[in-house]
Amino acid sequence: MENGTVAEQAYTTYKPLLFSLAYRMLGSVMDAEDIVQDAFLSLDAAGPEPIRNLKAYLCRVVTNRCIDRLRSAQKQREVYVGPWLPEPLLTDGDPSGNPPEQYMLQESVSTAYLLLLQQLSSTERAVFLLREVLLYDYEEIASIVGKSQANCRQIFHRAKRSIGGSASFDSGGDVCLAAPRPAAGQEARQLIEGFLTALATGDVPKLLSSLSEDASLFSDGGGRVTAAVRPILGADRIIRFLTGLLEKSPPGFSYRPALVGGDPGLVTYIHGEPSSVMSFEVAGGQIRAIYIVVNPEKLQHVR
Q: In what residue span(s) does the RNA polymerase sigma factor 70 region 4 type domain sit (predicted)?
């Protein structure tokens, strides 16, 4: 079979899985798409010998390139202005026409979950995702990351212990670990939708009841646009901040509800161009954290 035909069939079969892996590794939609595309292009340069396990080969290429990308981006992350948040992945399109969306909807890709993965080293992240999300056995994982099965087993258990809680930020804006929290369900979705309605209508009592007293808001502008470089702490301050933003909305401002990583969120626009994406973390029946991405580089794929 021609390499081109193999690549075409592999693209249809494995792109959703590979995108899922790369996005969780990197927290970047654009970088994940680039790496997955490069992985399929590498099939053309693989030579005439048939690849025995195409799925494992592609996962190995994607994993290694993600690890390389993370290492090269480490210094940039160290000097990043304000809190770093992952690129938002909107999942409210037509899943049948977008295989990566369809796959991503099946698994947790919330901002809190992606921040949690950032606590792991690049190798720990790869081993954890290959085992926990893609359900690979340790023999397959060892062949992908180039370590022994025993070492991969240890890495996985260490990573799982490390992310036994959800992610949050300290008062200086640095990410840290907190206690375990359940994933968002139908009740959490209703809470978020009610919060967004209250925000649009200026219902302050409803906003206060939706937010936990120690709630935090994190805004990622990356130093490219105006954003809070430190977390905004406390329900009262968050409400003043958000209502103030709405009151100062520029001409051409609009917004719409959206699914961000499978959970309810909000996208805002100025003259039809995306200006921010808002997502949430829920715990104990209240909103514990709000994440707002305003860095224009992280909104290029948002429509």
A: 112-162
Instruction: Say whether pTM exceeds 0.70.
Output: yes
CATH at 192:
3.10.450.50
Express each pLDDT in 125-178 by its tens digit: 999 999 988 889 999 999 999 999 999 999 999 999 988 744 444 444 444 433
What totals of helices (H) and strands (E) does the chain contain, helices first?
A: 11, 8
Residue 254's beta-bridge partner residues?
Answer: 269
Q: Which residue has the tokens 């990356």?
A: 222
Which residue type, as a one-letter code, is found at position 79? V
For the chain, helix, strand, coil in percent to 5 are 50, 20, 30
List residues bridging with 282 in a β-sheet: 287
E-state strands within the chain? 167-169, 175-177, 211-220, 232-233, 253-260, 263-270, 273-283, 286-293
In a domain, residue 283? The reply is: yes
The number of CA neighbours under 13 Å toward the Cβ of 116 is 23
Q: Using the 3D structure, point to which of 59, 79, 99 is the last residue of a domain.
A: 79
E strand or H helix that includes residue 142: helix 138-145
- The residues, any chain, with a CB within 8 Å of residue 110's CB and separated by 6 or more, are 183, 184, 260, 261, 262, 263, 279, 281
Tell me whether residue 151 is in a domain: no
